[in-house]
Amino acid sequence: MRLVSLNRYDLGMPLGFVRSANADLGNRKGMLFLYSDGPATDPGEELFDYRGLKPVRLAVFTADGTRLWEKTLPWGVIAGPWFVPAVPFDMDGDGIDEIYYVNNTGAPFSFMHRKLERLDGLTGETTGVWHWPENTFNERLSLCYRFYIVAGYAHGEPVLVTCQGTYGNMYLQGWSGGMEKRWETVIAADDPGPRASHMTPVLDVNGDGVDELFWGERLISLDDGHEVLNYAPEYNGHSDVITPFLDYETGKKYIYTCREGGETEGQKRVYTFRAEGGVAWSAVDHGHMHTGWGANILPGFRKVAMAMREHFVPDDMGFNHEVDGVFYFDALTGEPVEFHPAVRGDKLYPVDLNGDGYHEFFVGEGEERSGDILDREGKPVDHLPVGCIRIGKMTDHPGEQIMGVGKDRRSVEIWGDADAADGAIMKMRYREPYLHFMQKLMATGYNSVGSQAACGM
Ligand SMILES: [Ca+2]
Ligand SMILES: [Ca+2]
Ligand SMILES: [Ca+2]
Asked: What is the pLDDT of residues 115-147, one digit of tens each?
């Protein structure tokens, strides 16, 4: 493996909060950045921290690193993924993605001045503004400001989806090409069933030509907003991880989930569902399963599913996440797997850097070994001194890549393996639009966190 910088994007200022998503710019590829030189914050009552927050900026670059435009958003836009999601998506069919994001020209917590805004992808000029729904106005702070923008296709037509709320009342709206309202779905706090996830995979999981949005452990049709399938109608909690994955041998799809709350007697905390419905396996009796991933690391490209359990311990400012269990399972059978990586599994981001069908791992921040690259057995093989932004299929270079903030703290680089070559598994993964398409949804929700949304399919 020979790690090299494939692309570099000079954002021209010190970087704190950074999100990024792939954008299509007609005959060119592009890259969207959402960033500030301060930290990000969260609407949770025990987490919201306004110290050091800085204005948020948007910029679009060509894939090879030329900046096309940048703009500074109004001071009412709070830096943080839940306050300001952004998605590049081509709704008018000219081959160039428009940029959709949640703007706020009022005070930071304003509802009156909050908007869905559309920008020309090539120039950054505003081409449309719509009032952002005030659905969550009466919720407590944590639930008020959980906003998502997602996108996908229904029989080839683009559909944008705007969402408000998680855990309690949840509101979703579908929009057609010219931003005509296509559908509206409300899941009330006292309705039965799961309470969404921080991740939003979009995939035509049943092959009927319409994408489904994985709204927690249920599927929402992008065509008309109806509930296509509820994997766990008896579960009314929230799921921290929702990752569809493919069994390379049979071509069948599965959904791997890790649950946060809603602990109920007789139910487990980790589930893998068959895509068509039904439990493939379940595990772990108690606890908040906070992170998880799937990685091809067993012989024959068999996938291992990781689940990390934790509990909250209050500290001087907010709380700490104290880990009390890391579990590894055969992703298809749920059988426990012996895996002893050099760094605990929940700190690892699976990425197939060399394209051979097995995942390597990047060690995330906050670890002595941060920046290390581990092989599939969990042994260190290389090192990359970057703060990771996201992982996945970001360029045409073979294999998958790592995007990170470079040593100079003001530029973003995409790193890949100079010797990478796409093997049979990688080619199978390309056949699912998911691998590329999810890279457009990496600046919304927690899709980019830990790369769980990228590693499954
Ligand atoms: Ca367009
Ligand atoms: Ca479908
Ligand atoms: Ca590999």
From this structure: 999 999 999 999 999 999 999 999 999 999 999
**Contact yes or no for 33/59 (Cβ under 8 A):** yes
- The full length of the chain comes to 457
What distance in Å separates the CA atoms of residue 207 and residue 209, rounded to the nearest whole number? 6
Ligand 2 midpoint to CA 45 (Å): 37
> In 3D, which of 63, 74, 127, 76 has the Cα closest to residue 99?
127
**Which candidate, 434, 427, 397, 429, places its Cα nearest to that of 413?**
397
Residue 359: nearest ligand to its CA?
A: 3
Q: What residues sit around ligand 2, an ion, with C-beta below 5 angstroms?
A: 204, 206, 208, 210
C-alpha 359 to ligand 3 mean position (Å): 5
3-class secondary-structure state, position 170: strand
CB 329 within 8 A of CB 307: yes
Q: Which tokens belong to 109?
A: 């917590």
- Tell me which ligand sits closest to the C-alpha of residue 219: 2
Q: Please write down the long-range contacts of 340-344, taking CB distance under 8 Å and 24 or more positions apart.
A: 340/378, 341/374, 341/377, 341/378, 341/379, 342/369, 342/372, 342/374, 342/378, 342/379, 342/380, 343/367, 343/369, 343/372, 343/374, 343/378, 344/308
User: Which residue from 192, 222, 225 is spatially nearest to 205, judged by alpha carbons?
Assistant: 222
Using an 8 Å Cβ cutoff, are 12 and 61 in contact? no
Model-level pTM greater than 0.85?
yes
The residue ranges of DSSP E strands in 364-445, in sequence order, are 372-374, 380-383, 387-392, 401-405, 411-417
For the chain, what is the largest distance between any 2 Cα atoms, rounded to a whole number of angstroms? 56
Hey, what amino acid is at 201?
A: P
| pLDDT band with cut points at 50, 70 and 90 for residue 454 | confident
pLDDT given at position 321: 84
- Ligand 2 centroid, distance to 255 Cα (angstroms): 14
Alpha carbon of 239 to ligand 3 centroid (Å): 28
352 Cα: distance to centroid of ligand 3 (angstroms): 4
Tell me how far the alpha carbon of residue 319 lies from the centroid of ligand 2, in angstroms: 40
Percent of the chain as helix, strand, coil, to the nearest 5: 5, 45, 50
**What separation in Å is there between the alpha carbon of 355 and the centre of ligand 1?**
32
